[in-house]
């Protein structure tokens, strides 16, 4: 069975091949338009059948790994969750994530994001761990609910592509890094909030955020990084006021 014209859709893909181009160009491809196909399926069809030189990242195809983030029709999205039928009759414009340097085609450089993650120490910090034979660190459902939402981050970087503050100031820690810092600050097993304080309270930390909220709109996992940032702002402001009014007992 062959696809008719009505069963096909055009993908306009941003191409950048640094060995032969000085800036991105556009290239159009026709792919099958099938109900179950996502933009990632369309790109895989191009890679497998039309143009093996196309470069992009993907892994799980299930909205879990976060590696297939791209700009689809002007919006940062997971390409494995953006269905071609939602953009019919097309064309569908596919570009790399904004606010990141482009390495090749749809592949962006993520080193800055990874460095910012390590700055906020997204791991459990304890002065010392009890011996394994003393049992687990148990949590109540309420204690887990405190941080569970922020633990859903998949490091897809869509929030960075959507963030106007990061676009203007690359020094800004960014939504995902701050949300992940809050994930651990709110974990009853963690004792590292003071270790994260300097970077979160700095000029490049939470106070740089102007609460546009685009990060939470773009987040595919409803992490609500804007909410995490505002929650930390309230915590920091309350702590500062307490230290001002009650300096001998604030710490």
Furnish the topology, listing elements before pairings.
Elements: E1 8-15, E2 25-32, H1 39-50, E3 69-72, E4 75-78, E5 92-95, E6 102-104, E7 107-108, H2 111-119, H3 141-148, H4 158-162, H5 164-168, H6 175-185, H7 193-200, H8 214-218, H9 225-245
Parallel strand pairs: 1-5
Antiparallel strand pairs: 1-2, 3-4, 3-5, 6-7
Helix pairs in contact: 2-6, 6-9
Cofactor: [4Fe-4S] cluster; [3Fe-4S] cluster; [2Fe-2S] cluster
Organism: Streptomyces sannanensis
Pfam families: Fer2_3, Fer4_8
Describe this structure in words.
It catalyses: a menaquinone + succinate = a menaquinol + fumarate. Residues 7-100 form the 2Fe-2S ferredoxin-type domain. Its cofactor is [4Fe-4S] cluster; [3Fe-4S] cluster; [2Fe-2S] cluster. Keywords: 2Fe-2S, 3Fe-4S, 4Fe-4S, Iron, Iron-sulfur, Metal-binding, Oxidoreductase, Tricarboxylic acid cycle. Belongs to the succinate dehydrogenase/fumarate reductase iron-sulfur protein family. It is a single chain. The protein folds into two domains: 5-108, Ubiquitin-like (UB roll); 111-245, Alpha-helical ferredoxin (Fumarate Reductase Iron-sulfur Protein, Chain B, domain 2). α2 (111-119) packs parallel to α6 and α6 packs across α9. The mean pLDDT is 93. Helix content is 33%, strand content 13%. The protein is an alpha+beta fold. The strands form two sheets. The chain has a five-stranded mixed β-sheet with strand order 2-1-5-3-4. 34% of the residues are buried. The chain starts with 7 loop residues before the first strand and ends in a 6-residue tail after the last helix. The protein is built from nine helices and seven strands; from the N terminus they run ββαβββββαααααααα.
């Amino acid at each position: 069975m062959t696809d008719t014209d009505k069963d096909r859709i055009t993908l306009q893909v941003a191409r950048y091949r640094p060995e032969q181009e000085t800036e991105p160009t556009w290239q159009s491809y026709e792919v099958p338009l099938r109900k179950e196909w996502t933009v990632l399926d369309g790109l895989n069809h191009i890679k497998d059948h039309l143009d093996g030189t196309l470069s992009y990242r993907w892994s799980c195809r299930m909205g879990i790994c976060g590696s297939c983030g791209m700009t689809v029709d002007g919006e940062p999205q997971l390409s494995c969750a953006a269905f071609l039928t939602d953009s019919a009759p097309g064309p569908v414009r596919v570009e790399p994530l904004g606010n990141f340097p482009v390495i090749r085609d749809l592949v962006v450089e993520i080193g800055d994001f990874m460095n910012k993650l390590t700055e906020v120490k997204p791991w459990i910090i304890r002065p010392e761990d009890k011996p394994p034979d003393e049992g687990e660190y148990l949590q109540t459902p309420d204690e887990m609910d405190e941080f569970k939402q922020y633990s859903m981050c998949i490091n897809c970087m869509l929030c960075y592509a959507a963030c106007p503050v990061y676009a203007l100031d690359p020094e800004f820690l960014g939504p995902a890094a701050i949300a992940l810092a809050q994930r651990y600050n709110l974990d009853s097993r963690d004792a590292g909030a003071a270790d994260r304080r300097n970077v979160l309270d700095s000029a490049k930390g939470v106070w740089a955020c102007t609460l546009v909220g685009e990060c939470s709109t773009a987040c595919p996992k409803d992490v609500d990084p804007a909410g995490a940032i505002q929650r930390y702002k309230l915590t920091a402001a309350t702590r500062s006021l307490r230290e001002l009014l009650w300096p001998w007992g604030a710490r």
